[in-house]
Amino acid sequence: MHAHPDDETIGTGATMARYAAEGANVTLVTCTLGEEGEIHVPELAGLIAAEADQLGGFRVSELTVACRALGVSDVRFLGGAGRYRDSGMMDTPANNHPRAFWGADLDEAAGHLVKVFEEVRPQVVVTYDEIGFYGHPDHIQAHRVTMRACELAGDAAPQKVYWTAVPRSVMEAGMAEFSGSTDNPFSGVENVDDLPFGTPDELIAARIDATPYAEEKMAALRAHATQVPPTSWMFTLAAGSGSDMMGVEFYTLPVGEKGPGVGPYGWENDLFAGVTLSE
């Protein structure tokens, strides 16, 4: 369950590619078309919301290509494409648009997701934490809608719900990696505690190693060209650390029983650990 096209790749792309390749049924639900995004392709600059307002439709095509790279074929929009609009960043005029996802009726939006649950019967659902990882209103709303849908879904509810996360130790390693780079996403930050995100390692539940699928994630990132420029720090990171950084993703587990794990904190290495699978 993701807020905008490209969120699926940035946050969970390697995980999605791994499970799709292993034969799991992976369903992506995206809540908006990403109409308020920036554009990093100069010749498409006129598509922005303040001008032609056609970016959302273009991002649908980018999402299609990205999911093809990840091996994910079941791609849906919450309530149908265009029902909810990208709300923009917090406290911007876009928050007040009549179709802004931020203002959606919670039970109505959750009802759309319940219908997906009833159809695909997921054992595992992945979304954001209560602050949407970094505070974007659509990420926060995606969290709220997902958790409400789990409450309403009855026997169609998942056995486990994971929230995307990055361990503090990984954030510290990233700060060190980029300390001398001109493309430093941590510029101006001196201490990991000053970042608005980052989860204590002991609170992480799962470390999903999908390093064999790091290139699939990179291909999906390239597909989101309007949002992820070639100079993005993510491509810099991939060039320096390769699959070691781009192919590993982390999660907390607010709903469900933690399965067997490894290491000092017992991190699961499989989102289906401990799940009862259908016959």
TrEMBL record:
<protein>
    <recommendedName>
        <fullName>1D-myo-inositol 2-acetamido-2-deoxy-alpha-D-glucopyranoside deacetylase</fullName>
        <ecNumber>3.5.1.103</ecNumber>
    </recommendedName>
</protein>
<feature type="binding site">
    <location>
        <position position="4"/>
    </location>
    <ligand>
        <name>Zn(2+)</name>
    </ligand>
</feature>
<keyword id="KW-0378">Hydrolase</keyword>
<dbReference type="InterPro" id="IPR017810">
    <property type="entry name" value="Mycothiol_biosynthesis_MshB"/>
</dbReference>
<dbReference type="InterPro" id="IPR024078">
    <property type="entry name" value="LmbE-like_dom_sf"/>
</dbReference>
<feature type="binding site">
    <location>
        <position position="7"/>
    </location>
    <ligand>
        <name>Zn(2+)</name>
    </ligand>
</feature>
<comment type="function">
    <text>Catalyzes the deacetylation of 1D-myo-inositol 2-acetamido-2-deoxy-alpha-D-glucopyranoside (GlcNAc-Ins) in the mycothiol biosynthesis pathway.</text>
</comment>
<dbReference type="GO" id="GO:0010125">
    <property type="term" value="P:mycothiol biosynthetic process"/>
</dbReference>
<dbReference type="Pfam" id="PF02585">
    <property type="entry name" value="PIG-L"/>
</dbReference>
<feature type="binding site">
    <location>
        <position position="139"/>
    </location>
    <ligand>
        <name>Zn(2+)</name>
    </ligand>
</feature>
<keyword id="KW-0862">Zinc</keyword>
<dbReference type="GO" id="GO:0008270">
    <property type="term" value="F:zinc ion binding"/>
</dbReference>
<comment type="similarity">
    <text>Belongs to the MshB deacetylase family.</text>
</comment>
<keyword id="KW-0479">Metal-binding</keyword>
<dbReference type="InterPro" id="IPR003737">
    <property type="entry name" value="GlcNAc_PI_deacetylase-related"/>
</dbReference>
<dbReference type="GO" id="GO:0035595">
    <property type="term" value="F:N-acetylglucosaminylinositol deacetylase activity"/>
</dbReference>
